[in-house]
Amino acid sequence: LKLQFLYFIGGEASYMMEHKAAPVALQVMLPNSVFVAVHAEGVERVLDVKEKVAQAVGLRIDSFMLTFEGDELANGVKVMDLPFVDQSELVLTMTDDSSISETLKELHEKLKVAQVNGGDNYSVAKVLFAMGKACFKEADKTPKYKDRYAPALTYLTESAEVWKQLDNDEGGMHCQYYIARTHRYMGNLDLALTYSTQAADAARRLNDHKTLMRCLNDLGHIHSDRLDFASALVVYKETIIVAKDTSGADHIGTAMHEELSILLQRNAEVLRLEDVLF
Question: Which contiguous run of DSSP H or E holds residue 49?
Answer without folding.
Answer: helix 46-57
